[in-house]
Amino acid sequence: MRYTLITLIFIIILCIGLQGQSNDYLKQKNDKIEQGSIFTKIINRELPATIAYEDSEIIAFVPLRLQAPIHLLIVPKREIYTLNDASENDALLLGKMLLVAQKLAVEKGISESGYRISINTNEDSGQSVFHIHMHLLGGKPLGPMVTQE
Length: 149
Fold this sequence. Notes:
This protein is α+β, with helices and mostly antiparallel strands. It has two domains: about 1-35; about 35-140, HIT family, subunit A (2-Layer Sandwich). It has four helices and five strands, in the order αααβββαββ. The protein has a five-stranded antiparallel β-sheet with strand order 1-2-3-5-4, with helices on one face. It is globular.
């Protein structure tokens, strides 16, 4: 009886842990992490990009698929796969990403009219590049962040 209860608890814990991401997504995520980030290739100048900002820790560039008239990706040069993988040691870097977004919003003329910053994390948010990055979006009314029900 004791082992049956322990086994049942173990199975429940295992199932709860697996609810977060589908098997297909996990495979795609692991494959992409193993291949290396497309953003690292941009940072290393292996792929071209229109760079809007760069310093020793952060790069910002125009994405291939614009979602607003002003759309920039703000990326730390050090790979952090998702926001869930960030630690307290990354606090200054994450804060600096916000300040870079603010600076770029001023430069692009959207600081007063308004802008959105967004970090997608894992499957339900649509994260497809596993190198943490912040979207800076503006230049038009953006509407609600998600469909209102």
